[in-house]
Please model this.
Amino acid sequence: LNHTTPATVVAAGSGSGTNTLPGFLLRPGHSSGQMLFSSGSGGELTSSIEWATTRLRASSSEGQLVMASKAYFGYQSSMKGSRRFDQTNIDILRGQPVGLDPTSLDTTFQQYSWVFTLDDVRPSAEDTTHSVWQSGSRAAGLSWTAVSGSSFLLTGSGAGIKKFTSPLFGGFDGFDITEADPLANRIMGEASTEKNNNHTHILNFVL
Model:
């Protein structure tokens, strides 16, 4: 957090060393530049922000699965250790504001929510009948594909891990929210195809 406000504006902090935190509650009148500071001569207090991300499956045993091959690695929409839908998915994956193109933003202000590959799935050290996903396992030579090759990971006689999920974000489901019956036949013309009529494309997909 960068600011130019003198450290004397927010005082009475406590802590060790030169970096301290405010010793009282900040009020709405305080600017963002007054939230963190250094009371000594060591300069500003530095900090980092961790943005919210969707959850990834860490182990094939999650959810009390007996067969590791039944596990879908990658994105998980439920709370860890539960089958309940995590409501934070809605905020994280909701559509962007009108007119905002995420790909046009300065890359300085962008980051990946997460990076996933089945190449990072490795044997579990705690349970030999299951596998775990850990970023960097392939590079460290610990993953199934690094030790036994890709075919071993995918085949039933091997690890049998060949399924993963990934969320969709932004966009919409294709239905016209102003139409009471978005699948009405009257919306389709005689010459409608999947390429020139979105309704036809959705209907064919549903069927």
Remarks:
- The longest strand covers residues 73-76.
- The beta strands are 19-20, 37-38, 55-56, 73-76, 121-123, 131-133, 164-165.
- The radius of gyration is 25 Å.
